Amino acid sequence: MRLLVKAPLFAVVAILTLTLGIGANTAIFSLLSALVLRPLPYIEPERLVVVVEHYQQQPTSVSYPNLLDWQTQQQVFSATAGYLPTGLTFKAGTEPERLAGAYISANLFSILGSSPFLGRTFRAQEDVAGAERVVILGHRLWQRRFGAKRDVLGKTVALGSDLYTVVGVMPAGFEFANHSEFWLPLSLWTGRATSLQGIENVMDRNNRLGLQMVARLKSGVTPARAQANLDVIAHRLAREYPKSNQNYSARVVSLREHLVGELGLILWILGGSVGFVLLVACANVANLLLARSAVRQKEIAIRAALGATRFQIMRQLLIESALLGMLGGGAGLVLAVWSVPLLQLLLPPDAYRVGEIGLDTQVLVFALAVSLLSSLLFGLTPALAASTPDLAGTLKDNSSGSGSRIGRLSRVLVVCEVALALILLVGAGLMSLSLFNLQRADLGFRPQNVLTVPISLPEGTYPEARVRAVFSTQALEQIRMLPGVRSVALATALPLSGYLSMGSVAIEGQPSNAQVQADYLTASPEYFRVMGIPILSGRTFSEQDTQDSTGVVIINEVMARRHFPDQDPIGRRLQLETTSAWLTVIGVVGSVRQNELSTEPGPQTYRPYSQDPWPYMVFMVRTTQAPLSLKNTVEQAIHAIDPDLPISRVLSMEQVVAGSMAQPRLTWLLLALFAGLATLLSAIGVYGVMSYSVTLRTREIGIRMALGATPGHILKLIVGQGMVLVLIGLVLGVAGTIALGRILASLLYGVGAGDPRAIGAVSLGLALVTLVACWLPARRAARVNPMVAMRNE
């Protein structure tokens, strides 16, 4: 503690620097711990994988026949199960609630190694067509809607339009398949799927409706071996069923990777970034300690002269460093406690385990370890340098030898600081350019003043296509008459949501094996006008396009350009995998980003909702005022038709667009923050080293000026020497950005990993900042009085 009393300014600066470095690392580690590092709550989770079907490198779902073939032909899994995320209306009391759930194979829970909290899991005989309708409840649902009563087993609950018997309740913390709150046997889906989404046969290999496969690797089988086995199966299916399986592949990914997704890579990048910040902070504190040890050279020399060993001197200095590290770590922990809730707000709300982020024991141990490691990093080099004083020189007040040795160490640390800061700054610069490009990307529609209202019609209440068509017509009429509504339309998929069907399309006159893959959705006649999607040729849908009229289809500009080059597609006929009838192309519209902002639009097809009425729809309401101000009014209009329909996730289209930017914005924001922090610390480090150099060379500077050197010459000398260090650091940093660019490449949009604009602008900016840091002590050196300086020994 004597160190803090004797040099309070030094201690405050050192502790504050460590607080920033350790606090940032602890906060990011809390995210990594919860989302990436913490073991999945299943038995031997490292053996759990998900097999994802891909079409031309894009992930999609698997058809039920393909799933069956995977299960019967594979040789690498000890067990496999299918699962299909879904949503059903839960009716209990007066308020209907839309719940997320999943259809699963009966053996899924045994594959995961999970047991129920109450009751049992599904039996094999319950996963066959015609079996009793049973359901397993999630723990949260059991507590929220059933009061955590144990007599729930055997009771009947209403989900959608059907009644189910509760046979089990899963334990607290169990989660699988898209935040599901209930699970149903997969056979209930295969038995009713023939009536959904225009599907004629669930056994049609073209029908990919969200089904996925989870599996447990056999003991000793690696993911690479499993991938090789699935490759063989995928090639075999492509040969046997070219119409449905050509250009499709199967990829084996770990269950953790599947659940966390791209967010895992982002968190690892951010973890590496804050690690760099900590290294810069440690280098800064090491420089402070080196400068401090220069001041204490005489004290240390006297201790050595009185018999203190090198080990004893080093022990004292390292204890002082450890004290600084623990104080900085404690303050950093407080900073992490304050910042973690803010970081949670920046994460996607549906991210896996986002609600479990916090400072648990693992995070606290990490903070302690980082504090001790930091103490060693910034304390060891100064302790080694200071523990071997030049006794004769120091006791005679001639400390130039030790001072120059300390100065060399400080300069090496400054070079490292600049290099690390440049790497982070280039990363932030690349993400800035990528974010700028995303914000300028052509959406294909106008999001301003549009309210989106998703609805899912229960199959029991709306079992037939005509009934769903009647509801949609009534709802559109009711909403259209509301004050503040300019126009209204519906579609079966929201732009940027990714929730749409993709299937094969046959073009009349082309070979059957020349089918193309295209996104598919249905829409009402006003959809394109409401969303501001341009009609490039032909016409849009009309009220005359009904189930009894000729089937029609609209394609987007990408499909027209790729598959009808130098031709007019109007009047050509297509056959979609969801229907056996040939459909006439009546129009070409602009391309819309249906998936992510960073994903360029592919071929898209639209059918009139009246000709293929799905149970799921989204109303798009273009308003004359703030969209969300009409939320309650629109909901009331829908409930006037069906008061039992649950309505949730009502958003403005601008909120949808902003949500699609959340992940890249999070990456950019935190990278920019950490880069700015590293730049500040490196600038302080440059300033400190140059100030120390000026202090050490005061006599030399005085002699130079006495011999005729002008203040300008002194200024150029000091700044030049400082900028040489900066230049070396910049060169090393540019080399480091090559590795960083490769890591960031998958997150960038419209910018290369080695973009010279980012590297050049960032290098220039950092050089200017450090130039100022060099100029300030150089200006002080240029003002030295030669007579006073030469008397200073």
List descriptors.
793 residues; alpha+beta; 3 domains; 6-stranded mixed beta barrel; 6-stranded mixed barrel; 25 helices; 22 strands; 17% strand; elongated
Structure description:
The chain is an alpha+beta fold and 793 residues long. It has three domains: 2-35 and 265-439 and 662-791, no CATH class; 57-246, no CATH class; 462-643, no CATH class. Helix content is 51%, strand content 17%. It is built from 25 helices and 22 strands. The strands form three sheets. Strands 3-4-9-6-8-7 form a six-stranded mixed beta barrel. Helix 23 (711-744) runs antiparallel to helix 24 (756-782).
Please outline the helices and strands.
Layout: H1 2-6, H2 8-37, E1 48-55, E2 58-60, H3 64-73, E3 77-91, E4 97-104, H4 108-112, E5 118-119, E6 134-137, H5 139-146, E7 156-159, E8 162-169, E9 182-185, H6 186-192, E10 212-217, H7 223-240, H8 242-245, E11 248-254, H9 255-260, H10 262-295, H11 297-305, H12 310-346, H13 361-386, H14 391-395, H15 400-440, E12 450-456, H16 465-480, E13 485-491, E14 501-507, E15 516-523, H17 527-531, E16 535-538, E17 552-556, H18 557-563, E18 573-576, E19 583-589, E20 604-608, E21 616-623, H19 631-641, E22 651-652, H20 653-660, H21 662-696, H22 698-706, H23 711-744, H24 756-782, H25 786-791
Parallel strand pairs: 4-9, 6-8, 15-20, 17-19
Antiparallel strand pairs: 1-2, 1-10, 1-11, 3-4, 3-7, 3-10, 5-8, 6-9, 7-8, 12-21, 12-22, 13-21, 14-15, 14-18, 16-19, 17-20, 18-19
Helix pairs in contact: 2-10, 2-12, 2-13, 3-7, 10-13, 10-15, 10-21, 12-13, 13-15, 15-21, 15-23, 15-24, 16-19, 21-24, 23-24
